[in-house]
Predict the 3D structure of the following.
Amino acid sequence: NVWTDLFFASFIPNAAAAVSAMGYAGLLIQTPLGILSSVILVPLFPILSKLTDPENWGELKQRIRQGLILTALTMLPISALTIALAYPISRVVYERGAFNSEASQLTAAVLAAYAIGMFVYLGRDILVRVFYALGDGDTPFRISIVNIFLNALFDYLLVEKLGAPGLVLATVGVNVISM
């Protein structure tokens, strides 16, 4: 999806700024997302793997629910804060030298779009781990292939109207569908 987004970003006027904003915002969003995904996914996977026998599926469903609730309780407030503080975060982290107020505004818009999808991104990763625990890597793979084409369609529909934030929102939409 990143490559699909970058392809469609090349059609945005001032594509270099759009691609840069997507990269900078992606780095900002990966900090909380990377830390919390490790905190949630690393201990959850062995638990899911132990519950793959059909007689344990009741508890497996409970652990999946627990993982999704924990994800919601952590990611939704962080998403809200990131959206609310996207511009100041962008300014503090990046604004110096050639990175001016205009670049901060574009990066903040893309960061806010990424933040909208934080819960769905991590929730989807939990569900992918469930398939892996069940020994089924084919289903997530097939869903990912379909998502690439859906992402291209959504990118095409949103790039002209929303620019770089639209490309990120297209990916968020695809993650919602895949989840």
Q: What stands out?
A: The first helix runs from residue 2 to 9. The helical segments are 2-9, 15-50, 57-84, 86-94, 101-116, 118-133, 138-162, 164-178. The radius of gyration is 18 Å.
